[in-house]
Amino acid sequence: MKNRWTTTLAGLFMAAAPFAVAPAAAPPKPVELTFSVWIPASHVLVSNFMMPWGREVEKATEGRVKVNFLTKPVTNTAGHYDAVRTGVVDLACISHSYYPGRFDLMKFAILPFSGNSAQSTSVAAWRMYDKYLRGANEHRGVRLLGVYGHGPGGVYTSNRRVEKIEDFEGLKVRIGGGIQADIASALKLNAVVKPAPESYELMSTGVVDGVFFPPESITSFRIEGAIKNATVFPGGLYSDVHGIIMNEQAFARLSEADRAIVLRLSGENIARMGGKAWGDADTAALAALRARNVNFIQASPKLVADIRARTAAFEKNWLDAAKAANIDGPKVLAEFRAELRRLEGGN
């Protein structure tokens, strides 16, 4: 009897063993995306926009997608487009101004005297791109997730004041290329083309008299101590539009559901987040400059008119580029400017 019960119990334990010891299925590993930035990690665009956007993606995908920011950029400033295109990194931010002749259609949003706030410029620029310019495929080889722009660009100098058109002539100014280079040529500046992070060294050593920047960049690149004069313009002397780009193969690695989530959190969401971060920093920077008793010069109607006369070809060149791409340029510019007025009016 003992042997019969022993044999029966042993058989039961053996039959149940596979169910008792089978391990729980491991959750799938998240898709990890690398993000390279060429601006300092302390910059408001990184800390108040790009990193929070990455956290939004991770939360919305319930951890299935993680955005990892690299501690150092994978290449120089302008090299980030190709770094994303070739898969060296999955995500990056770019300034369209650093690629002369490559993004001519994006210049609609950065013409002189266009917009009075970073967020309105960002949102209006994205809406026009999404509605009219996407099909031109200027961002071929990568996926453009969103665009965002900075606030009104001004002229910030150490000792020389800029109050009339003649004050520009021979002025040594750090510029970043693109529309800034076009304006520098039209105004007969002595332009020094260098990436924004080099501005402190250029200003502190006296290599340049000043910089073309939105207010935020003065404090972000820590040159406020060298600034004594600021000439500001209605709608800004210029603007710049940046983009967040993604490697196409990295996007394809995501599940269909997670691709939809990333796209939902991109587009206008990126424009609003990036524009707000830049705009809030503009407000803080202007307060900091005024606390340092920087001399603010509001551009006179005559100075604005003189600059308009010298830069009138910029709009014509854009309209020609739009026409060549079968885009109704006058319609885009009119709608962009109307959108700016609505957004700046709080609508």
Brief characterization of the structure:
By secondary structure, the protein is of the alpha/beta class. The chain has helices at 2-21, 44-60, 80-85, 118-133, 179-186, 199-204, 215-220, 248-253, 256-264, 268-291, 301-324, 329-344, and strands at 31-36, 65-69, 91-95, 143-149, 154-157, 172-175, 190-193, 210-213, 229-232, 241-246, 295-298.
Which segments are poorly predicted (pLDDT under 50) over 5 or more consecutive residues?
Answer: 4-10, 12-17
What is the helix fraction of residues, given as a range?
Answer: 40-55%
Order of the strands making up the biggest sheet: 7-6-8-5-9-11
Distance between the termini: 89 Å
Decide which structural class fits the backbone: alpha/beta
The biggest beta sheet is recorded as: 6 strands, mixed
Name the overall outline: globular
Overall mean pLDDT stands at 91
Q: Strand content of the residues, in percent?
A: 15-25%
Number of helices: 12
Order of helices and strands: HEHEHEHEEEHEHEHEEHHHEHH
Question: How many β-strand runs?
Answer: 11
Radius of gyration: 26 Å
Present the secondary structure layout.
Elements: H1 2-21, E1 31-36, H2 44-60, E2 65-69, H3 80-85, E3 91-95, H4 118-133, E4 143-149, E5 154-157, E6 172-175, H5 179-186, E7 190-193, H6 199-204, E8 210-213, H7 215-220, E9 229-232, E10 241-246, H8 248-253, H9 256-264, H10 268-291, E11 295-298, H11 301-324, H12 329-344
Parallel strand pairs: 1-2, 1-3, 6-7, 6-8, 9-11
Antiparallel strand pairs: 3-10, 4-10, 5-8, 5-9
Describe this structure in words.
The structure is a single chain. By secondary structure, the protein is α/β, with parallel strands linked by helices. The chain has helices spanning 2-21, 44-60, 80-85, 118-133, 179-186, 199-204, 215-220, 248-253, 256-264, 268-291, 301-324, 329-344; strands spanning 31-36, 65-69, 91-95, 143-149, 154-157, 172-175, 190-193, 210-213, 229-232, 241-246, 295-298. It contains 12 helices and 11 strands. It has a 6-stranded mixed β-sheet. The chain has a 5-stranded mixed β-sheet with strand order 2-1-3-10-4.
